[in-house]
Write a structure and sequence with these properties.
The structure holds two protein chains of two kinds.
Chain A (H helix, E strand, L loop, with lengths): L5 E5 L3 H13 L3 E5 L5 H8 L3 E5 L7 H10 L8 E5 L4 H10 L3 E4 L4 H13 L3
Parallel strand pairs in A: 1-2, 1-3, 3-4, 4-5
Chain B lengths: L1 H19 L4 H8 L3 H8 L7 H10 L4 H5 L3 H14 L11 H7 L1 H30 L1 H24 L6 H36 L5 H11 L14 H20 L2 H11 L3 H8 L3 H9 L11 E6 L4 E5 L17 H7 L5 E7 L6 E11 L9 E10 L10 E3 L21
Parallel strand pairs in B: 3-6
Antiparallel strand pairs in B: 1-2, 1-5, 3-4, 4-5
Helix pairs in contact in B: 1-7, 2-3, 2-4, 6-8, 7-8, 8-9, 9-10, 11-12, 13-14, 14-15
Classes of the chains: A alpha/beta, B alpha+beta.
Chain lengths: ~130, ~425
């Protein structure tokens, strides 16, 4: 994993954030975090990460709305987005994938599953 | 077909019974007065057995003929075949040996069939609960919180299970694990209690009114019924009742007039009522009956009776409406019930995860459906819309959805503690 890879983790659960940050940092990622829906799109625009990990249920704004904004923005739409959700219902998954999510992980997931998904996602990105 | 199967089972049962008694084929054949080769054909389902031969074989085996020909029956066979068909396993079940299983291990076979029945019942229950969760924002949020905590625990435990973790990190993750495990235990216990209360009510039921609301939502609140609605009979009746009310409102306040007034004064039911000379309650109901695509802002609606029961719900993002139990007593619509002559406009945010600012308009109809000698009946409506152009910080968090999941730390009207 290249040292230059940067991930923006948008997740409001602090202990999930801490665990994911630890695991990805150890893999060589530079991890930045954002804990709520408000200003999430602006944060992505400002930081231009290589990957966004985005929780669906966030305070103040749905992750699906944020995803829609990201994919509607010509400057941001190429950034891969991995959605996290505790509700693995197929309508929600279909909505996320239709809007343009690159992959969708259902909580609870293991660190190994998350790492494998991140690697697989980034293997296909520039 | 069934008779053939029973015939096969009889041969297998004779073989199993003989093996239990440690008899050779020759010894059994001799005792039954038949040749060993004929017995061999019977045991391997090449010959039918009945009448006197069956009686003699049964006697020689120390049992009665019925035990060899009945007992397990086609139901058990069908159940085992069904299990083998539906549930994959590795290695797969030997479907050509179901007879032998049922004969040699009747108790285990019956247990497998009983477990299959139990699994089917549980699957049905899970489907029902899944359906319930997808419609119940309160329950859905509770499950979300539990699953988030489980995710934190799983990730943290995964890190702690590794060798060579720095002691400082180890201590930190131990602390997180302790916090999350406590939170999970509390949340799971309360969630279980919440589910049990729901199950007592009727876990599978989606009420006719909910059917109507779901159908209207899927059709963008249009009452175009050119195609079959696919509702239950009770749902169709509830939809007809709703349609009659909407039609009556539309007769008094036609679309064209409402849309023209909307353009003139904007989305303000009080000003619209003044402009149109119509009751505020009717204006609110008419607005909430229009398709979302035709409205300048998303709209939600709740209708309640004088006892506070929720009669109709139109969901809008940012405003959770409970499916079960009582709503938050601080909703402005309940205040409106106390001042029926004075419609109420309020700005608020709802406690919880989505705290976007909202505004609402509430009004009450008082009627005497039984005439002047009858009781006065109240029916109140509250229209809810996201508040635009106003910073959320300027609007206080003043209401919840229901006590069960409201995180408000100190609430003067709390009836019960929060689930989480």
């Amino acid at each position: 994993m290249s040292d230059s890879k940067r991930v923006l983790l948008i997740e409001d659960e602090p202990n999930i954030t801490e665990a994911i940050r630890f695991v990805l940092t150890r893999e060589g990622w530079h991890v930045q975090t954002h804990a709520e829906g408000r200003d999430a799109v602006e944060t992505v625009r400002e930081r231009k990460p290589d990957l966004v990990i985005l929780d669906v249920m966030l305070p103040n704004r749905s992750g699906l709305d944020i995803l829609a904004d990201l994919k509607a923005d010509a400057d941001l739409r190429t950034i891969p987005v991995m959605m996290l959700t505790a509700r693995g219902s197929s309508p929600e998954r279909e909505t996320a994938l239709r809007i343009g999510a690159d992959c969708f992980m259902t909580k609870p997931f293991s660190n190994r599953e998350m790492l494998d998904t991140v690697r697989s996602l980034m293997a296909g990105s520039p | 077909m069934v008779r053939d199967r029973e015939h096969r089972l009889t041969g297998a049962r004779i073989r199993a019974r003989r093996a239990e008694r440690r008899m050779t084929q020759a010894a059994l054949a001799e005792a039954a007065g038949i040749s060993a080769s004929y017995l061999n054909l019977i045991e391997h389902d090449k010959r039918r057995i009945g009448g006197g031969v069956l009686g003699r074989v049964a006697r020689a085996l120390g049992t009665d003929p019925a035990t060899l020909t009945e007992g397990l029956g086609p139901d058990l066979y069908a159940a085992l075949e069904s299990v083998a068909e539906r549930i994959p396993s590795n290695p797969p079940p030997e479907r050509d040996r179901i007879d032998g299983l049922a004969t040699d291990y009747p108790g285990w076979a019956a247990l497998i069939a009983a477990l299959d029945t139990r699994v089917a019942a549980l699957e049905h229950r899970i489907t029902a609960l899944g359906e319930r969760m997808s419609h119940d924002p309160v329950l859905s949020e509770a499950v979300h919180d539990v699953l988030s905590t489980v995710t934190a625990i799983r990730s943290t435990a995964g890190i702690l299970a590794e060798d060579g973790l720095d002691p400082q990190w180890q201590a930190r993750f131990h602390r997180n694990l302790h916090e999350d495990s406590q939170r999970l235990a509390d949340g799971a216990q309360r969630l279980a209690g919440y589910l049990n209360v729901g199950e007592a009510a009727n876990s599978d039921a989606v009420s006719p009114q909910e059917e109507v609301e779901a159908w209207l939502s899927a059709n963008d609140w249009s009452l175009d019924m050119s195609e079959s609605c696919g509702l239950s009979e009770a749902g169709e009746t509830a939809l007809a009742r709703h349609t009659a009310r909407v039609t009556a409102d539309a007769d008094c306040l036609p679309d064209e007039a409402l849309r023209a007034a909307l353009k003139e004064v904007g989305l303000d039911p009080f000003r619209l009522a003044d402009t149109l000379g119509a009751p505020v309650t009717r204006v609110i109901r008419r607005l909430a009956a229009l398709p979302a695509r035709a409205m300048p802002r998303p709209l939600g609606l709740v209708e309640i009776d004088g006892a506070g029961a929720l009669l109709f719900r139109r969901q809008v993002t940012g405003f959770l409406i409970p499916r079960y139990g009582a709503a938050c007593a601080l909703w402005p619509v309940f205040e409106a019930l106390l001042t029926p002559a004075h419609p109420i406009h309020r700005r608020f945010r709802q406690h919880g995860r989505d705290t976007r600012p909202l505004e609402s308009w509430s009004a009450v109809d008082l009627t005497r459906p039984g005439g002047l000698a009858g009781p006065v009946v109240a029916r109140a409506v509250m229209l809810v819309a996201p508040l635009e152009g106003v910073a959320g910080d300027g609007v206080p968090e003043t209401v919840g959805a229901s006590c069960a999941l409201c995180p408000a730390p100190a609430c003067p009207v709390r009836r019960e503690s929060a689930v989480l």
